[in-house]
Specification:
3-stranded mixed beta sheet; 14 helices; 8 strands; 12% strand; globular
């Protein structure tokens, strides 16, 4: 049976590690944050002492860090020490799960292959709750040997694993499209709620009606309750969509493909971050509209 290492114990990595453990895998976690490490051990998780220690114990490693730069540091090392390419044994597999430019995973795949290490380009979706329940979606691509090496680990962390192709990059392409839609839908939900509030609608009734009407989206149903509760604790932050829609727009520019809706949404996230709300939940985009229109938003408690 595979031994899984999870690098990055944030909202998704924490859930993935614990759900894999609950499904019978031996799991070791690693995170630079002391708070994340304490949370993981308090839930019964086992920490590796270092990246080298994790690589020595595991034959599959899922990298669930924030961005491409952090992923590359884990894969190939930095000033802090060597990466997984120098630490894992031949035949081991890495699942790279951060949302990144689709042009990067093929480069990582080639570099790791030189060391006999397999790569799954496997970004994830579903949020913290689905990750904790082992129900997140993995958008995976890679060579057949990589899927064989990572099969047990993928099944242990996910409810759905979509095998999208035999080369790295396709998984990240599909995740990019997902983030395009997610980012636009959240921004639209915030704009629509702000419009309703400005026009005098009751916020709770507006939410209930839209959730039972054709205008409902998953993001509307999921994010608007944060607004109604006045709780902007970041399950997914504004800054995440500053990054992810930036990736979408950069890729589209290389393809010479226009994305006016994504561009408009990106500007809303940038404006919200510039106003000091970048670390808050992405539903805080409504605060941009509230500031413009003098709206009174629901208060916490």
């Amino acid at each position: 049976m595979s031994v899984l290492g999870v690098v990055g114990l944030g909202s998704m990595g924490y859930g993935a590690a614990l759900s894999a453990r609950a499904r019978g895998l031996t799991v070791f976690g690693l995170d630079a944050s002391a708070a994340a490490r304490e949370r993981f051990t308090a839930a019964g998780g086992t920490l590796a002492e270092s990246l080298a220690d994790l690589a020595a114990r595991c034959d599959v490693v899922q990298v669930l860090v924030v961005n491409a730069a952090q992923t590359e540091a884990v894969l190939f090392g930095d000033a802090q020490g060597p990466g997984l390419d120098a630490l894992l044994p031949r035949g081991a597999a890495v699942i790279a799960s951060a949302t990144v430019d689709p042009a990067l995973p093929p480069q990582w795949e080639a570099r790791l292959a030189e060391r006999g290490i397999h790569l799954i380009d496997g970004p994830v979706s579903g949020g913290a709750k689905k990750a904790a329940a082992g129900e997140m979606t993995v958008m995976a691509s890679g060579r057949s040997a990589a899927f064989e090496a990572a099969e047990e680990a993928l099944a242990a962390v996910a409810g759905k694993v979509y095998r999208l192709g035999d080369r790295a990059g396709i998984g990240s392409t599909v995740k990019m499209v997902n983030q395009h839609l997610a980012g636009v839908h959240i921004a639209a939900a915030c704009e629509a709620m702000a419009l309703g509030l400005r026009a005098g609608a009751d916020a709770d009734q507006l939410y209930e009606v839209i959730c039972n009407s054709a205008g409902m989206s998953w993001m509307f149903a999921n994010r608007v309750p944060h607004i109604l509760a006045g709780d902007y604790t970041p399950l997914s932050s504004v800054n995440i969509f500053v990054k992810d829609l930036g990736i979408v727009l950069d890729a589209a520019r290389k393809l010479q493909f226009p994305l006016p809706l994504a561009a408009a949404a990106h500007q809303l996230y940038l404006a919200t971050a510039a106003a000091g709300h970048g670390g808050e939940d992405d539903a805080a985009v409504i605060k941009f509209y509230a500031a413009l229109a003098g709206l009174e938003l629901p208060k916490a408690g």
